[in-house]
Design goal:
By secondary structure, the protein is an all-alpha fold. It has one domain. About 70% of the residues lie in helices and about 5% in strands. The chain is built from 13 helices and four strands. A two-stranded antiparallel ribbon has the order 1-2. A two-stranded antiparallel ribbon has the order 3-4. The longest helix is centred in the N-terminal third of the chain and has 28 residues. The termini are far apart. The mean pLDDT is about 80.
Length: about 350
Amino acid sequence: MKKMIKLFLLSLISSLVLTPLVKKLARALGAVDQPNRRRVNQYAIPSLGGLAIYFSFILSLVLLGIDYKFYGLIISSSLIVLLGVIDDLYELPALIKLGGQVVAALTLILMGTKIELITNPSGGIYYLGYLALPITLLWLVGVTNTVNLIDGLDGLAAGVSIIAAVTVGIIAYQQGQFEVLLLIVPLVASILGFLPYNLNPAQIFMGDTGSMFLGFTLGAIAIISYLKTITVLTIVISILALGVPMLDTIFAILRRKLAGNPLFKADKEHLHHQLLKIGLKQSEVMIVIYLISIFLAMIAVGIHGANLKQGFILLTSTTLLLGLGAWELKKLNKNLGF
């Protein structure tokens, strides 16, 4: 417990101190997000804020000691951060950014973190064999881009990531995976230290540096947490923990595919954009999405403690409720002429 408290305080204080310094660095390097038609900020805001989260997280782990089995996470997440910094400075083409994400994911996999088996809730174990690599790769790259896509409003990606991390932490604790908390605690504290500077009106953005780091790290921690007991339900739990950005990503892919647009072409049709269109303020949109995320997190924890039948009922009812909400929001925007 003492180590957890030290990790939390060191990460929190480091992030609070480093964020203003990163803000100055971003301005000096020209890493500043200028207003444009697909961004909601009305004035230039420095980016690269993810560096403060990253360094606070890594610093805490290094100074207070970390098990060698987590070295793969440190190295691969560092590659993701490097990719994010380059992207924030020079706006890399989508395919090159995707390639960098694949390299980072493969690094983590080759260093021993991958989904190797899935247990059937009703009994039996399925060893993935050669499928372990592509499935783990798809998961890591998918979660990385999921958080990256939702980073469109002040404080949004940071808050949703905290909720997702706490959810994974609670379930890891219930499973007795206490070593996973040594990753969750400093990650949450590092985001909390950054969040006051990122809330509306934001003084700094986390940029792709932060959103990709958070997505990749959350995806990796979820794998580490469930390495011993991967089941269909635990996969569902991981998806629900990041339910809002996951669903937003799925809808974005479908929307762009149906419209004949490139999958990586940015637009202003994400959930937060839809909520802004109906007249909500940025802070109100953030609260709404936080509440939805907390609701999904509670469902995830509930599913973890449920049997297969109960889990299916919870998941089905949740999916129907979210689908109805999305339909009503779209219909409201249509009636308003958007």
